[in-house]
Amino acid sequence: MLRVLNLGAGVQSTTVYLMYLAGEIQPGIDCAVFADTGEEPAAVYSHLHWLQSLAGPPIIVRSAGRLGDDLMQGRNSTGGRFASIPAYTAASEGAKAGIIRRQCTKEYKVEVIERYIRREILGLRPGQRIPKDVTITQAYGISLDEAGRSVRIRERLEGRRWITPEFPLIVRGMTRGDCLNWLRAFGVPHEVQKSACVFCPFKSNAEWRRLRDTDRDGWARACQVDNALRVDGTVANRKLDQKLYVHRSCVPLERADLGDPDPRQYHLGLNWTAECAGMCGV
Ligand code: SF4
Q1: What angle do CA 106, 33, 37 make, to 5 degrees?
Q2: Ligand 1 centre and the CA of 270: distance in Å?
Q3: Which residue, of 13, 111, 153, 267, has the fewest CB within 10 Å?
């Protein structure tokens, strides 16, 4: 019986990790796993290092590769066809947006954590069955205001009798706001930011502005990947008669209007506030 936390190092999963560390959630975890896409903002990596410095439950970092590099080179983490990010599509710049299928979460988050559990914790070979006496509890930092995601996680895990999802924040009735208060009271010495790839298209304008204004390298990387999506003939856009963009206005990120209001965000139901903590695909 093992208990593992999916750690995204954003607000909610940080709260859960620190609650385990403080002994507020019992029983404790054996470890927390951070699936690293190699593309988080600098603030998330420095926060992760701060968490590791607390010498609480072990924080394991595993990666399937650098998502943006794989995307630009048209390959996925295993050398196959690239895993798409949820980019917006338009026939021409600024036109009405569609969105392409998201495969990145599964390959670069969900499977990375599952592989760590299967291969490194349980010592299984690829394809080997889970022994009957093994039970893993996977804890998720999902707050009450995004409870729908917990339903989708339960659905995804149905039929896998060896794994049990757990949602400590929902059980305690905690919202994201409650988490922020809890982190303040705990005494985290810096602001905990949302974790997500710097070029993740699921960003509000306020989040894009923050990246641009506070993380020069992260912003440059986001623009680099965005521009690469539209180089004619690359694998990322092959067979697509539309252009790909990371900003929902379907204008290149470096020229996109990042001012509010941003009504389409709400119309499309894309007011993304959740973390991509090994579950943004569910
Ligand atoms: S943060 Fe966005 S781009 Fe990165 S893995 Fe999650 S959905 Fe994909």
Answers
A1: 50
A2: 14
A3: 267
Q: Which residues pair with 3 in a beta bridge?
A: 137
Distance set, CA 97 to CA 90, 92, 242, 245, 247 (Å): 5, 10, 10, 9, 10
**For residue 109, which atom of ligand 1 is closest to its CA?**
5
CA of 123 to the centre of ligand 1 (A): 28
C-alpha to C-alpha distance for 233 and 264, rounded to whole angstroms = 29
Amino acid type, 133: D
pTM (predicted TM-score): 0.88
- State which of 202, 246, 253 you would mutate to test the pocket of ligand 1, scoring each by most atoms of that ligand within 8 A of its C-beta: 202
Q: Is 108 in the pocket of ligand 1 (CB under 6 A)?
A: yes
**Where is 3: in which H helix or E strand?**
strand 2-6
Q: How far is CA 170 from the centre of its chain?
A: 19
Tokens of 157: 């895990």
Distance CA 143, CA 179 (A): 8
Pocket of ligand 1 contains residue 76 by CB under 6 Å: no
Name which of 226, 239, 242, 252 is nearest 89 in CA terms: 242
The span from the CA of 169 to the CA of 25, in Å, is 10
Mean pLDDT for the stretch of residues 125-135 = 88
Reported as a pLDDT band with limits 50, 70 and 90, residue 251 is very high
pLDDT at 96 over 90: no
Q: Does the beta carbon of 202 lie inside 6 Å of ligand 1?
A: yes
Mean predicted confidence (pLDDT) in 76-82: 67
Atom of ligand 1 nearest to the CA of 108: 5
Over the stretch 21-41, which tens digit does the pLDDT of each residue have? 999 999 999 999 999 999 999
Domains of the chain: 2-267 (3.40.50)
